[in-house]
Amino acid sequence: ADTFNNRIRKVDSAGIISTVAGNGSYGFTGDGGSAVEASLFYPTGVIRVKSINYKDWLIKNTICSICENLIFCLTKIGLRFIITLIINCSCNWCL
Question: Computed over its alpha carbons, how large is the radius of gyration of the chain?
Fold first, then answer.
């Protein structure tokens, strides 16, 4: 997570850094749209899903999940790089 740039980045085996999610602006827009066009709110953690054969609806067909700071929500990026809010909580003890 590139927290202060409001983006999720990846580094490939050649050392090339690319953006997976976030347009660089902090905010709450983009749910249901392209992950790279979405506004993120200081993302602090990323969970990479290695297999897409999970039966759990929360992570099925998911590339990764993102924890966003201060708003205590969890979003996921699907196989088509669509970002979706899956948990939204306004209190810091919920997650």
Answer: 13
Q: Which of 92, 90, 70, 76 is nearest to 8 (CA)?
A: 76
Q: Model-level pTM?
A: 0.70
How do residues 34-60 score in pLDDT, each as one tens digit? Answer: 989 999 888 887 777 665 454 554 555
Tokens of 21: 């999610």
Q: Are 38 and 83 in contact (CB under 8 A)?
A: yes
> CB neighbours of 95 closer than 8 A, spacing ≥ 6?
67, 72, 74, 87, 89
Within 8 A by CB and 6+ apart from 31, the residues are 38, 75, 83, 84, 85
Domain boundaries, the chain: 3-88
> With contact defined as beta carbons under 8 Å apart, do 64 and 77 qualify?
yes
Residue bearing tokens 């200081």: 42
